[in-house]
Amino acid sequence: MQQKTDTATRSDYTAEQWQARVDLAAAHRICVMHGMHEGIFNHLTLTVPGTTDRYYQIPFGLHWAEVTASCFMEVNWDGEVVRGSGEVEKSCYAIHAPIHRKVARAKAVFHTHMPYASALTRLADPKIKPIGQTEVIMMAKTGYDMDYTGPAFDPEEGERLAELVGNHKVLFMGNHGIATVTETVAEGFDLLYYTERAAQVQLYAMWTGQELLPMPETVVQKTMNVGGGQKFLHGKPCDYHFRALKRILDKQEPDYKD
Predict the structure, then answer these.
(1) How many angstroms separate the CA atoms of 175 and 167, rounded?
(2) Contacts of residue 2, Cβ cutoff 8 Å, sequence gap at least 6
(3) In angstroms, rounded to a whole number, what is the distance separating the alpha carbons of residues 214 and 76?
(4) I need a labelling partner for 206 at 20 to 30 A (CA). Which of 69, 81, 188, 251 fits?
């Protein structure tokens, strides 16, 4: 992948672009806070506001705990760094660029190997089960890919995954991990968080060895129809969640905004 060196400051970006960088940096740090990262691997990407041909990606080799707003490269659909500097991790480009390009709502594409959700992807039946409110809410948003093809170093894999995403906002990737495909950073992180929570609780319930207690179908449908759909004055529940977590970062790790 090509590299380009470019020194930029906050004044070089629009207000919307800088806020996007701040939010994406926050998402990386918050994933570390919750153990939802894999060192220097996995990828959280976001299309660059005001453009139609590029997305933000961290330079390969940065730990997510080091990510700041100014560190992101702008990478185009051909895997070339058009702004910033660093090495483009091939599997990030191969998976993310096609999804950003082909799925209209794919502004934020977050791919992780979170332990509990990834554990479910190792099962012959990885599906989230209707055994609790959080699980049912996530069921309504989740699709499944059972055809792992090996490490993704070719954009053809991203093309395949883009076709599978469909209307789902969460994709379980068999033998691999998960991805969220959303309009905003806040929603992308929120879905990572609650997917991992649902997977964790389900695994805990399974580990007891006792029979699971499924919810009645009428309750499942009611929960799917209303779950997560509350409206608030200052945005969606995911916006409130993300703002709260950023307030914690502001106190503990304010350098994420640098």
Answers:
(1) 22
(2) 79, 80, 81, 88
(3) 46
(4) 188
If one counts every other C-beta atom within 10 angstroms of the C-beta of residue 207, the result is 8
CB 165 within 8 A of CB 144: no
Distance in angstroms (rounded) separating the CA atoms of residues 135 and 202: 8
- The residues that bridge with 59 in the sheet, in sequence order, are none
18-23 — which CB contacts under 8 Å span 24+ positions? 18/69, 20/46, 20/48, 20/49, 20/56, 20/185, 21/56, 21/69, 21/70, 21/72, 22/69, 22/256, 22/257, 23/185, 23/186, 23/242, 23/246
- Reported pTM: 0.94
Secondary element (H or E) of residue 129: none
pLDDT, block means (10 residues), the chain with 258 residues: 52 94 98 96 97 97 97 97 97 97 97 98 98 96 96 95 96 98 98 98 98 97 79 85 98 98
CA neighbor of 151 nearest in space, from 187, 177, 125: 177
Contact 25, 256 (CB under 8 A): yes
Where does the chain show beta strands of DSSP type E?
43-47, 54-57, 73-76, 81-83, 108-112, 142-145, 170-173, 177-182
Residue 236 phi, psi (nearest 5) = -80, 165
Rounded Cα distance, 123 and 121, in Å: 5
* Residues 6+ away with beta carbon under 8 Å from 102: 159, 162, 163
